[in-house]
Write a structure and sequence with these properties.
alpha/beta, Hypothetical upf0131 protein ytfp, five-stranded mixed β-sheet, 18 helices
Length: 564
């Protein structure tokens, strides 16, 4: 997938590491010569050959210590975690292990004895966490892909704050074997990339159950969204309190998605937001104590040095939760989940901002718990309620990345990606008047190219339509000359009403494929519509209509076909 050889891509990555000067990204960086030697043995035909990867340091990479951000916790695994092994098996090369909020507890990227990871765009601001180093390594162009984890939003918040893609799959699709648990029943291995398709490719490569993880699973992916999917957005009251300019940025993102043919509906997401509060405010935090609490208990003397005090306070507090608390919160969560399903019934996805603000390092240092709590409003509920989620860039506010997130039920991973593809690649509009119209013989070409019907439209009144002698039959649309007869037709005059047609929206790749295959004498040109817009459309070269009957009087191809 890379134009460079594996060795050339590795060299470029290490050169980039040296040029950006961000040592806090890494906890363990492999020596250049070692990675080059590995790259030299990669089959260039493998799907990810030539791509370099970074791995969050709570995920095992054989031969490198796993610290989870705590030197006192370090161990050296003999085997790669399945997610790492699967990437390597298709040609990816691992550069090293990345920094994180200790024990994956935090959404800020500052809770690490290895140093706070600074944002890729503004070094005075946080990177977001807990998968901080992985996100920044991708955002800075060092790594092509990176693995992180996500329990409360750790694979989505840093994606948003650094302007990249963050894929949080359905729980269990990627096994967590070889991953230091934060909350074992909620943890997900996630993928970062700068490109949506690469991110989804890597995410699908690492999918698949593992016998060593009894919670890993497979499931039938939900069907693709319809041509006009419905997407929910939060009611305005749930968007209050965001950073300056973010409400407007989200409004613009919503409009952008709507412009692709998506139906936007407002939803009361109160059940989701209440479920989110249970992740840290309920008994589920006891899972964090079950995961690493014993280590913290044994090393209380290291709190404040090796062990982050904020993380330690959160994890150790989990010991106080009782089984009765757990039972009550489980019942509460089930009720909220049912209410949430009712709210989102009939929707392909929920669109939200990924987070609510982008604080500075100093702001987080002044209020580490409060600042972090603001980060997870729209992320904390996903794993609790068994949702898939996908974070995508949505522009900039005051020079910093702004991101949005699509969230849907379990196994909606590919459906979410399809909606995200509309958003990240809104596509190009194409005006058609003949065999590509809905119900006509060539309409399937538009559908196969990823096209979505925008709606009917008419040309301005300075166009004429001719019946061409082609197979299948199709018309030729030509524009009248400003003065004199239409070139090559010998006809004069305007139609008065224009020619009927349809507007279809296609992704850029589909548009290119379709137009490249257009047979002569068909051509793609600019068509003026009756409402004054100018868009691309099928036209015909003038020579082709010299002997072709003029059917303009019918007003459109369908009317001509229906005529006696």
């Amino acid at each position: 997938m890379s134009a460079l050889t594996p060795a050339e891509r590795v060299e470029a990555a290490y050169d980039r590491i040296e040029s950006v000067g961000r040592p806090e990204i890494w906890i363990h960086l492999r020596p250049r010569h070692e990675v080059l030697a590995e790259a030299a043995g990669i089959d260039p035909k493998l799907p990810l050959a030539g791509l370099v990867a970074a791995v969050k340091d709570n995920i095992d990479v054989a031969g490198l210590p796993t610290t989870a951000g705590a030197p006192s916790y370090a161990y050296r695994p003999d085997a790669d975690a399945p997610a790492v092994a699967r990437l390597r098996a298709v040609g990816a090369v691992v550069l090293g292990k990345t920094n994180l909020d200790q024990f994956a507890t935090g959404l800020v990227g500052t809770r690490s004895p290895y140093g706070a990871v600074r944002n890729a765009w503004d070094t005075a601001r946080i990177s977001g966490g807990s998968s901080s180093g992985s996100a920044v390594a991708v955002a800075l162009g060092i790594a092509d892909i990176a693995l992180g984890t996500d329990t409360a939003g750790s694979g989505r918040v840093p994606a948003a704050l650094n302007g990249i893609i963050g894929v949080k799959p359905t729980k269990g699709l990627v096994p967590v074997t070889g991953v230091v648990p934060a909350c074992y029943t909620l943890d997900c291995v996630t993928v970062f990339a700068r490109d949506l398709r690469l991110a989804r490719t890597a995410a699908e490569i690492v999918e698949g159950p593992d016998p060593a993880d009894p919670l890993s699973r497979t499931g039938t992916q939900l069907p693709p969204p319809p041509a006009r999917p419905r997407v929910a957005v939060p009611a305005p009251e749930h968007l209050q309190g965001m950073a300056d300019g973010w409400y407007e940025a989200f409004d613009a993102a919503t409009a952008r998605l709507a412009s692709t043919g998506v139906e936007i509906v407002e939803a009361d997401v109160t059940p989701l937001l209440e479920a989110a509060q249970l992740l840290y405010g309920g008994a589920f935090v006891a899972e964090r104590y079950a995961a690493v609490g014993e280590h913290l208990d044994k090393h209380r003397d290291l709190i404040g040095t090796d062990l982050d005090p904020t993380v330690a306070s959160i994890v150790l507090a989990g010991q106080a939760r009782t089984a009765a608390d757990w039972a009550a919160d489980t019942a509460r969560l089930a009720a909220l989940g049912a209410a949430a399903r009712a709210v989102l019934d009939g929707c392909a996805a929920l669109l939200t901002p990924t987070t609510t603000w982008h604080p500075t390092l100093d702001e987080v240092a002044a209020d580490p718990v409060g600042a972090n709590a603001r980060m997870g409003r729209f992320t904390n509920f996903a794993n609790l309620l068994d949702y898939a989620s996908l974070a995508v860039p949505a522009g900039f506010v005051d020079g910093l990345p702004f991101g949005v997130m699509l969230t849907g039920p379990a196994f909606s991973d590919r459906a979410l990606a399809a909606v995200a593809e509309r958003f990240t690649n809104p596509g190009l509009d194409l005006f058609v008047v003949g065999a590509h119209l809905t119900g006509q013989p060539l309409n399937a070409q538009l559908v196969q190219a990823g096209g979505t019907l925008v709606g009917p439209a008419r040309t301005a009144d300075n166009y004429r339509l001719h019946a061409l002698a082609t197979e299948p039959p199709r018309p030729g649309l030509v524009r009248l000359a400003e003065d004199g007869p239409d070139a090559g037709t010998g006809t004069h005059g305007r139609t008065g009403t224009g020619i009927e047609g349809e507007i279809w929206r296609l992704p850029a790749s589909g548009f290119g494929t379709l137009t490249a295959a257009a047979p002569a004498p068909m051509a793609i040109g600019t068509v003026e519509l009756a409402d004054g817009r100018h868009i691309s459309g099928f036209l015909v070269e003038p020579y082709a209509v010299e002997d072709a009957p003029d059917i303009t009087r019918f007003g459109g191809w369908r009317a001509y076909l229906a005529s006696p």
